[in-house]
Amino acid sequence: QVQLVESGGGLVQAGGSLRLSCAASGRTFSSLGMGWFRQAPGKEREFVAAISWNGGTTYFADSVKGRFTISRDNAENTVYLQMNSLKPEDTAVYYCASHGRAWLSGTYYYTKATYDYWGQGTQVTVSS
Fold first, then answer.
1. What are phi and psi of 15, to 5 degrees?
2. 84-122 per-position pLDDT tens digit
């Protein structure tokens, strides 16, 4: 069992920045692959970014490449999503997710079904 708690969401103007955090507990964090997804009203939950268990590989949706970065601190059991140059279309609830399959790579990280545990989400609203 893994518990995930997101924080850092809020209201920001277009062009601004936010940093989301996701604190994990319940399992050795360094064994977990971590991802961020988001869901806007009336839309499917979509992949945003992910990071491998050791931080060596990162993955990004095309829509956020060059604007968002993902990192992790295994000593603090936390994964971060730094969001810069925010746009109104980034408005959504952002969810942190984890999986324990360290051997996975590539397209598995983009897929919701790969992830076993999810946080409650944090709202990000970008005003124009």
1. 90, -10
2. 999 999 999 999 999 988 788 888 999 999 999 999 999
From 45, 25, 41, 22, select the one nearest 97 (Cα to Cα). Answer: 22
**DSSP, res 60:** E
Q: Can you give the pLDDT at residue 106?
A: 83
**107: how many CB neighbours lie within 10 A of its CB?**
9
Question: Taking a C-beta distance cutoff of 8 angstroms, is the pair 30, 79 a contact?
Answer: no
* C-alpha–C-alpha distance, residues 76 and 78, integer Å: 5
Amino acid at 120: Q
| Pairwise pLDDT comparison (107 vs 125), residue with the higher score | 125
CA 14 – CA 98 distance, rounded (Å): 29
Distances (CA, A) of 68 to 19, 27, 104: 9, 27, 22
* CB environment 30-60: b (16+ within 10 A), e (fewer): eebbbbbbbeeeeeebebbbbbbbeeeeebb
Identify any residues that bridge with 37 across adjacent strands, giving them in sequence order.
47, 95
Mean pLDDT of 34-40: 97
